[in-house]
Design brief:
The complex is a heterodimer of chains A (370) and B (368). Chain A has helices at residues 2-11, 53-56, 66-69, 80-90, 111-123, 140-144, 154-163, 176-184, 221-230, 293-321, 328-335, 337-343, 346-351; strands at residues 27-29, 32-37, 44-51, 70-71, 74-77, 94-96, 102-106, 132-136, 174-175, 190-198, 201-210, 217-219, 238-239, 242-243, 246-247, 249-263, 269-283, 354-365. With 370 residues, chain A is an alpha/beta fold. Chain A folds into two domains: 26-219, no CATH class; 221-370, Nutrient germinant receptor protein C, domain 3 (GMP Synthetase, Chain A, domain 3, 2-Layer Sandwich). Chain A is globular, with a radius of gyration of 25 Å. In chain B, helix 3 (42-64) runs parallel beside helix 15, helix 7 packs parallel to helix 10 and helix 7 (139-165) packs antiparallel against helix 13 (270-301). Chain B has helices at residues 11-22, 30-38, 42-64, 72-79, 81-113, 120-135, 139-165, 182-191, 201-205, 218-241, 243-247, 252-258, 270-301, 307-326, 331-365. By secondary structure, chain B is mainly alpha-helical. The chains are: A alpha/beta (370), B mainly alpha (368). Chain A binds chain B through residues 1, 4-5, 8-9, 12, 15-22, 27, 94, 96, 98, 125-126, 128-130, 163, 175, 177, 180-181, 184-186, 334-335, and chain B through 112-113, 115-123, 125-126, 129, 132-133, 136, 170, 172-173, 241-242, 244-245, 247-248, 255, 258-259, 261, 263, 269, 272, 308-309, 312.
Chain lengths: 370, 368
């Protein structure tokens, strides 16, 4: 028996099965994909960001000139699978998406092609679905390459930006698996951050929201901030309310929110959004000598009014466009799936819904009171 | 044949061995089938299934206590050889089928999450050699290997499931509704019988367990531990990715684990590490079932000397079936069409054999 065991162990090195395996040095590890409109109708232009062997071998640790450390194979094709196949024909490496960090979609993609790409991306087995998704205002390929005066490599920049919640005033990052999950649940419009390049720097402060098959609705910086506040994802927002004693500045220290919904006997949807926010009075009203409890109360009330009005305006805009970036439908579906399923089209139900917004602001920290 | 107490395993080894024999790759697909069949009653369906399994294990162990040396297989061969030989031969074949199914299902799962063009053959052969090295020993030796490997990697899985639970957003979807779907629960239980592909094996291990002092047989405790682990995996999966997304995934637990990213930890994709660590758990599963096939033959021929050769032959058959015969087949096909019926047949067969022998022994003892 020992001889049999010894023989079995002796032949193990011969059974590593390397014959039909693909080694690491023949793989192109894609860290970013940019998707733009193609020149031909029905085709998309895919740009893959692949670190060069020099970058993989270390030296630099991810900062420095991105252009030298990455190459960007591109292909125009009707599907991602076709694009990968085309790129593999032009390179000596096997395109591998298991290390993907960011997927960028040009904001002007036709809705049908945008949805088709998202569905296809979901089905790719080798992807972990932990990559971040974003729209881009300039072309996606431009945003995937580092702008001239940007120090960090794009994939690292986005990875750090979206991962560090406390670093940002709002957390807009959307991981692929959450996007996939949300698309499975009725009553949901997907929202992705929009990346822009201003003065050679990345800017991520606006949201694009869409329903499958429909064009993306863009919310401006202020509207996006209110949406993120309603989702409980604002960490360091600045509000400037006008009080009877003049302008004040309040810095948000985070908010807790609650979204609920019900359907009345006539089939009409009633939604409520409750926001509880704590903040610091960064700047007291100009005519106030010092921050007394009364002044604090006055600033809190004025801040509540500003936020409530702002939220109501964004809700109205969302209702007009039939998109629900606030996730009312999702919250309602999780409470009562049958009720939302009975409503049929959530965008239509949301457009006609009665929405009530209540905001409560407390100034938690005042620092010195003069 | 197994008369000395020295060959028996410790209570801890008994429980871990039982859990390793019954904790299989089936839990990767079970959440989807449970949710699809039973909806919000899926959790109840799973609990029902494991309560039945614990009851089965308890009845089996209590019935076997009336038999000489608590060995239903050996007793059946001695009392009713006309039934005993075919039954143990069928058990040996069923154990090899379960081992093949488990290995093929693992291959299917790992191929989907592994690098494309990865050589799965090398893993299979390494598994076979490693598992046979453990399986060729008596249960005492095998249970020690299982104790070390299984405990470590199960702890890793447990840790990852707890980490998943920390960010669960859809816990409320697990709350049972007042509208219990009894037909849904029954369908879910039938469709997930493959979770018990290791249950029948426990009857072969009965002679090796020491008597439990707590009253609950060690195999029942082991099955309960498997139930708790499976329930935790189910809860972590559904509460994290949600029931709607669970339905859209082939391996919902794998998807849930693959979304686990630990920022600032030296291995950020911790969940993926756990998926690969599942190899060790599968290796234990393979070793136990090939050992069980060898044990069935040893009990049939009342001779332990050929155990190494029986298990070697069994392992060659398993690898041959998986590599040549099946290759990577969809896990659900294997689970539903092979492992489920085999599990049910073995569990019911062993229960009937053991209870029948115990009843017959009582009947003989009564006139005296």
């Amino acid at each position: 028996m020992r001889r049999v065991l010894a023989a079995a162990l002796a032949i193990l090195p011969l059974l590593t099965g390397c014959g039909n395996a693909t080694s690491i040095d023949t793989r192109a590890l894609v860290v970013g994909i940019a998707v733009d409109k193609g020149q031909k109708a029905g085709e998309l232009r895919y740009t893959f960001q692949v670190p060069s062997p020099q970058a993989l071998g270390g030296g630099g640790g991810g900062s420095g000139s991105g252009g030298n450390k990455f190459y960007y194979p591109t292909a125009e094709a009707p599907s991602l699978a076709s694009a990968i196949s085309l790129v593999e024909d032009r390179t000596s490496r096997d395109i591998y998406l298991g290390q993907l960090k960011i997927v960028l979609l040009a904001l002007d993609l036709p809705p049908a092609q945008r949805d088709e790409f998202l569905r296809e991306e979901q089905r790719l087995g080798e992807v972990d679905h932990t990559e971040w998704f974003a729209f881009t205002k300039p072309s996606a390929a431009t945003v995937l390459s580092p702008p001239p005066n940007q120090e960090q490599l794009p994939s690292l920049y986005y990875s750090v930006h979206f991962n560090c919640r406390a670093c940002q005033s709002t957390s807009m990052g959307v991981e692929a698996w959450k996007l996939d999950r949300d698309q499975m649940e009725p009553g949901h419009s997907a929202s992705l951050p929009i990346i822009d390049i201003t003065d050679g720097q990345y800017s991520i402060a606006t949201l694009g929201t869409y329903n499958p098959g429909q064009a993306t609705v863009v919310f401006n910086v202020s509207e996006s901030a209110y949406i993120m506040l309603a989702l409980g994802e604002m960490h360091k927002g600045v509000i400037e309310p006008t009080t009877p004693l003049g302008l004040a500045v309040v810095r948000s220290l985070g908010a807790r929110t609650n979204r609920r919904g019900r359907v009345d006997s006539q089939g009409r949807v009633h939604l409520t959004l409750k926001v509880k926010m704590g903040g610091t009075i960064a700047e007291a009203p100009h005519q106030a000598d010092r921050i007394t409890p009364e002044i604090s109360q006055m600033v809190s009330q004025a801040t509540s009014d500003v936020i409530r009005t702002g939220l109501e305006e964004v809700v109205r805009k969302a209702q007009v466009h039939g998109v629900d970036p606030f996730r009312f439908g999702q919250a309602m579906y999780r409470q009562n799936p049958a009720a939302v399923s009975r409503l049929g089209s959530w965008p239509q139900a949301f457009s006609k819904a009665v929405v009530e917004v209540s905001v409560q602001v407390g100034t938690l920290r005042q620092g010195i009171t003069v | 044949m197994i008369r000395d107490r020295g060959r028996r395993v410790s209570p801890l080894e008994s429980v871990v061995f039982t859990t390793a024999a019954t904790f299989a790759a089936g839990i990767f697909i079970a959440p989807r089938i449970l949710v699809a069949d039973a909806g919000r009653s899926a959790g109840i369906a799973l609990v029902t299934l494991y309560v039945l399994a614990v009851v089965w294990a308890t009845v089996l162990a209590r019935s076997a206590a009336h038999l000489p040396n608590r060995a239903p297989g050996v007793t059946l061969v001695q009392r009713l050889p006309i039934l005993g030989y075919p039954w143990l031969a069928a058990v040996a074949i069923a154990e090899l089928v379960i081992a093949s199914g488990g290995l093929a299902a693992y291959q299917d799962m790992i191929t989907a999450v592994e690098l494309p063009n990865f050589s799965i053959l090398s893993v299979t052969v390494l598994f076979a050699v490693g598992a046979w090295t453990a399986a060729r020993h008596r249960m005492q030796g095998l249970s020690r290997v299982v104790l070390v490997f299984f405990t470590f990697f199960t702890a890793l899985v447990l840790l990852s499931l707890l980490l998943l639970l920390t960010r669960a957003e859809e816990m409320h979807t697990l709350l049972p509704t007042t509208h219990l779907s009894l037909s849904g629960i029954a369908t879910a239980d039938v469709d997930t019988l493959f979770l018990f592909s290791g249950l029948g094996t426990l009857a072969l291990t009965l002679p090796y367990h020491v008597r439990s002092e707590s009253g609950l047989p060690h195999i029942a405790t082991g099955v309960a531990v498997t139930g708790a682990l499976t329930l935790l995996a189910f809860v972590a999966t559904v509460a994290t990715i949600g029931p709607d997304f669970v339905l859209a995934n082939t391996w919902p637990l794998v998807t849930a684990l693959r979304t686990l990213v630990l920022r600032n930890f030296f291995l950020d994709r911790f969940g993926l590490v756990v998926v690969f660590s599942w190899s060790a758990i599968t290796l234990c599963f393979l070793a136990i079932h090939v050992w069980a096939a060898g044990e069935a033959i040893c009990q049939m021929v009342a001779d332990e000397r050929g155990r190494g050769w029986w298990t070697l032959g069994g392992m060659i058959i398993v690898v041959g079936v998986v590599v040549v015969g099946m290759g990577p087949v969809h896990e659900e096909t294997i689970a539903r069409s092979v492992e489920g019926p085999a599990a049910l047949g073995l569990a019911l067969g062993w229960l009937l054999v053991t209870m029948g022998l115990a009843w017959g022994r009582k009947l003989h003892a009564a006139p005296q």
